[in-house]
Amino acid sequence: MYDLIRINYDTDQPTVSARDLHAGLEIEKRFSAWFETNSTGFVEGEDFSKPYLKVRVQKEGNREVSREVEDYDLSVEMAKHICLMSRTEKGRQCRQYLIELEGAWNSPEQVMARALKFAQRSMDSLKERCKFLGGQVVEQQKVIADLQPKASYYDMILQCKDLIATTVISKDYGMSAKKFNAMLHDMGVQYKQGDTWVLYARYQGNGYLKTKTHNYADSKGIQHSCEHAYWTQKGRLFLYDFLRQEGVVPVIERGTV
């Protein structure tokens, strides 16, 4: 009989299978009708679980077959009550067995064992959480490392308040000024007017470029003047964002995109 009434200890409180109790009490009445009668007055979700399907091996003639049957998990208190209401010797034996089980469940040793088991689950959960957070930190560090070159280049730009010659910027990209200017021309950023590079209309008026007049003397000592374009801090940032979209990045960022 005790083998028939297996106890489930996987929940906070031990439970009994209604099917196992039905078999242990040796009830001849059909299970569904028996349960409907004996569950009256009890509350689903508190005294017994919602119905669920499980596989049961049963004899049909000379062969054993597996069938899906409906079952419920009962609280020990509800199971004891059903045993008492059966008014049979089997019912008395089952009830006594459940009373002894309940006493063992509430013994100091079992209480301590459950506390240790709960503590172990908490520790395992904490370890998994730490592992997850550790993974998050690694990912964040990787992102920071990937972004560091960009931040460094931005910092370099922002630290410089002066006008910058194209020659200086082109070196950031590992190019000569001639190649850099030609690239910007091919990308539709600037064109040459005389000896000076100027921006196309769509980029003018944004404060990207400023010109400076330079005076110089020729071989005969005659004074001349010419204008050279210089990039502002705002223009340098514009170049960075524009070129990055085109897949061109400073040398400091090579290998991060």
UniProtKB/TrEMBL annotation:
<feature type="domain" description="Antirepressor protein C-terminal">
    <location>
        <begin position="142"/>
        <end position="244"/>
    </location>
</feature>
<feature type="domain" description="AntA/AntB antirepressor">
    <location>
        <begin position="16"/>
        <end position="88"/>
    </location>
</feature>
<protein>
    <submittedName>
        <fullName>Phage antirepressor KilAC domain-containing protein</fullName>
    </submittedName>
</protein>
<dbReference type="Pfam" id="PF08346">
    <property type="entry name" value="AntA"/>
</dbReference>
<dbReference type="Pfam" id="PF03374">
    <property type="entry name" value="ANT"/>
</dbReference>
<dbReference type="InterPro" id="IPR013557">
    <property type="entry name" value="AntA/B_antirep"/>
</dbReference>
<dbReference type="InterPro" id="IPR005039">
    <property type="entry name" value="Ant_C"/>
</dbReference>
<dbReference type="GO" id="GO:0003677">
    <property type="term" value="F:DNA binding"/>
</dbReference>
